[in-house]
Structures are given as C-alpha cells and as structure tokens.
Fold DDE Tnp4 domain-containing protein.
Amino acid sequence: MTFNTRVSILVSIMSTFTIRAAVIEDTEAKKIQRQIVIQNRMMRLLCENHLYLRIFPDDDCKFLFRFTYQQMQQLVLLFGLKEKMFFQENSRGKFSLSAIESVAILLHRLSYSSRLGDLAIFFGRSESTLSPVFKELVCRLHLKFRAAMIFDYNQFKPENLERFSNAIYRKCQRVQHCIGFIDGTFVKVARPTDNQEQCYTGHYRAHGLKYQAVVTPDGITSSFYGPVVGSHHDMFLYRESRIETYMRNTFDFRHEHGPCYHLYGDLAYVSSEYMMHPFGNAPEDSPYHVFNMEMSRLCVSVEHEFSYVGNLFSFVKFVQNQRLFLSPVASHYIVATLLKNIYVCFNRGNQTSMKFNVLPPIPQNYVYGLLH
C-alpha cells in the first residue's frame, strides 16, 4: 500500500472519529476545515511508512490510546518491558518490535472494536505482525498481574482501610467500618462450538463468563477474580476466590482492640463478619429501608467501575472478539481492568473517587504495590 493511499484512508478514519465525537452539528465549511487539519496532521504523523507516535498531540493520543505518549512511556517502565520486545520466539517467524509501539498496538486494539485490517492501515504493519503482538502482550501482562489482582494487599493496608471507612461513613452515618463494595458481572462471549450449555445462562439469555470485583472509594478495583462460567451464582465466585480468608487476615484488628472492617454487597451474598448486605423485606417506612436505599446509592459504584472498563476499552464488550478457546478471553478483561486502574491513577480520580473525595494512588505506587 502506497504512502498516499494510507494517508487518504487514515484521514477518512480520523475524520469519521472526529465528526462522531463532535457535540454540536457543524456547518459544511467547518467540516471541510477540520478535514484539512486532520490531513495535515496525518501527513506529519506518518514517518518511514509507520505511525510516528512521538509527535501525537496529547488529546489525539488519549483519544486513540487512552493515554498520552509520555504516559505510554511510563507504562513501558511500569510493566518492566524491554526496549525491544520479541514475539513468536519459538517459531521461524520470530520478530521484534519496540516496546512503545507494542503498547500502542495493545491500547488501540483494546480501545476500539477495530478489525486487524484497520490496525494494519493505521500502524503500517501487517495483520500477521499485529495479531501476535496483541495476543502475546495481553498474555504476558495477565501472567504478571493476575495473582496480585485477586486481592491487592497494598490497597488494603491499615491506613487505607481507615481512609476508605471514613469516606463511606461521611456518605452514610448508619454504617461503620465499611471499606468497599463487592459485586459480580457477566461478560458476554461468542457462542462456543463445544460445551455451549456450560457458558449459557438463562438469566441473561446469552453465553458468557463471570467476574467478581471489589471497588474501593478511591475508584480502584482493588480485588478482581475470575472468570468462571456464566451459569454460576455470585456466591460461587465469592467462595471460589477465597476472599473471606484474605479479609480475615487483613480486615480484623480486634486482637489489637481495633475495628473489624467489612465489605458491602447485594442480597446475593451471605452475611458474615466481613460481609454486609441489605436488610431483607424491610418495610418502606422503617429505618432499615432508609439504610438500604442509602447504601444502594453508594454500592452502585462497583457497577460504575464495570461500565468504566467497557467504556474505556470497548474491545471487551464486542462479543465477536471474545471467542473461547480461540483467543485469550479472560486475559482481555483482566488486562483491561488493570489498565482502567492505571488510567484512574494517571488522571487522579474518576466518578467514584470524586463521589467519596478520595484520591487514588499515583501509578508508580499502585503498580509497585501490586507486584510487591
């Protein structure tokens, strides 16, 4: 494909994105003016037939990759990636790519449900290069962070527990020592060829996988477990994740004459020392009903974080991309959640953290805490 052809296609793609993103309807003259600006910009961005990331303006970079170029450079360091990465190492097709371009491919692929052919035009790389870069980098990050994300001990250190508890108490004085909210989510996948009934759930009338998350008032998904097949109940995830064991070892300070912290979830969960749920069948004129309503408005934060993952990285919501046994479906969602957390850290908060007025950690502290 010639240089000019790539420019014209990229201009078309970029102009479509920009026009769709416009809040008000422009006049024809403004549309033409915008297209000229995009064309000039794309001419500068293409260098040696590959996309030259360094000179992307921050707004465009965040639009296409969710992070600025400087933030992507920091991601390379935070993930411990070598400057030159090798892919398909055990085959004759072994090749290398810079870490920054590999991260850009990962982020752009996750951010949109684009076809590999679209990415080939955008990055000036073949589909046979882009596919293994995306899959292998997703799997490497999954292997590196999956165990730590089940329960982030650094997020649940004593000073944070007190900070989270105070933030929730300020919003609802009827509850003490609550430090976060737990819930499960169902993520649809393409209908598998084999064992369809295991992934199918009549509740959603779809095939899918389930994940469990604990969201803390700083907007971070501080515990993330899964997947299990979509037909399982939330309580199955709770027991399978062994989260109550983690909480027993981390939340209980009664032996030091301190509090015993707990999570809050819906009626799907069984009440315990470390788990609180709404009062069942509470009359509307009772204080129990008022408590349920107040906590429901706070507990919705965990649903917001699930939605936030999908809004930032819509690849995980596009069902046809999620093919069991053909692609690393679990890795997609876990890595997207990790990147969502880091995105919140870089931007110093989100809807949840603003609601509770609690700042998230800086990216370096968050990733270091996960790995140590």
